[in-house]
Design a protein that fits this description.
- With 282 residues, the protein is an alpha/beta fold.
- It is built from 10 helices and 7 strands.
- It has helices at 21-24, 34-42, 57-68, 82-85, 136-141, 145-165, 177-193, 208-215, 224-235, 265-280; strands spanning 15-18, 46-48, 75-80, 104-109, 112-116, 199-204, 239-242.
- The strands form 2 sheets. It has a 5-stranded parallel beta sheet, with helices on both faces. Strands 4-5 form a two-stranded antiparallel ribbon.
- A hairpin with a 2-residue loop joins β4 (104-109) and β5 (112-116).
- α2 crosses α10 (265-280) and α3 runs parallel beside α7 (177-193).
- The longest helix has 21 residues, at 145-165.
Length: 282
């Protein structure tokens, strides 16, 4: 997401940002996105490869390897959102969406994982191909008021149902060890690919629910995923920034939209300021 071309004419000191909708800047204008705020704080070009729409570490590794890696840059910043990054590429959480052409991880052997696509997955310009109208009758029907009410109610129900299925995710307090191993394998793989860069930074992002639990005294620092991600950061010489350590526990809601779970403009600005201060304070 940007207003400039990404090509070989870029500044060699550029920063690649990769992640999901938080990196993309979902819900805010481009000038209020994390990437643009970071540009203003660092006076450097930020190449925004963030993508919403269920893009987790597996997709991010592919995007970096195929699109971002060949471009001039000296630094990588990766966002990690425990609220959904653990489950984005674990196929057991997506049994009702296997028609969608997207990658998942599978275990090959001890500590090794690879990427695969479901046999029934169909390539499309629109990832919601299952619900696209198939003929002119369906297209005409979608123009009716009553059908659109039904479609919206169905969408809300499906969103609720998916939250129930993923309720054991629990974000910062996620405890599915096999899914953790597969997910962090690709976090590690991406960071290792960036080993030739001057700097790597991994930013962990807490969701609203995380901050509520943390403010109530719940601890996550000794959980398996957190200890593992710290080891990965150390082995890959990556700066680890846990935004939960910098989020005001008494007023954390002020960083997010009231109607949505993403940062609003001031939240993006706050996050960019924290990352710039922590990543470059030395």
């Amino acid at each position: 997401r940007d207003t400039v071309d990404y090509d070989q004419n870029l500044d060699s000191n550029s920063i690649v940002l990769i992640g999901d909708s938080f990196a993309e800047g979902y819900g805010v204008s481009i000038n209020n996105s994390f990437a643009k705020w970071l540009e203003s704080f660092t006076n450097r070009t930020v190449l925004n490869f963030g993508a919403g729409g269920n893009f987790g570490p597996v997709q991010q590794e592919i995007i970096y390897r195929k699109l971002a890696y060949p471009l001039p840059h000296s630094e990588l910043i990766q966002f990690f959102l425990p609220a959904n990054d653990f489950t984005e590429s674990a196929i057991k959480y997506w049994q009702n969406d296997l028609h969608r052409y997207r990658p998942y991880f599978k275990k090959n052997g001890f500590g090794d994982y690879s990427i695969f696509y479901p046999e029934q997955a169909v390539k499309s310009q629109d990832y919601d191909i299952k619900n696209q109208p198939k003929n002119w009758v369906e297209k005409a029907a979608r123009m009716t008021f009553s059908l659109n009410i039904y479609r919206n109610l169905k969408l809300l129900f499906n969103m609720y149902e998916k939250r129930q299925v993923n309720s054991n995710n629990d974000s910062y307090f996620f405890n599915d060890d096999e899914t953790i191993k597969g997910t962090l394998f690709f976090v590690n793989k991406l960071l290792k690919q960036a080993s030739n860069l001057e700097k790597r930074t991994l930013v962990i992002i807490p969701a609203l629910g995380d901050m509520k639990k943390i403010s109530e005294g719940k601890k996550y620092q000794d959980l398996n995923w957190y200890r593992t991600i710290k080891k990965i950061a150390k082995k890959t010489d990556t700066k680890l920034i846990d935004l939960a350590e910098h989020t005001p526990t008494d007023n954390y809601k002020k960083l997010f939209f009231d109607c949505d779970s993403h940062w609003h403009p001031e939240g993006n600005k706050w996050a960019a300021r924290i990352v710039s201060e922590q990543a470059y304070k030395n």
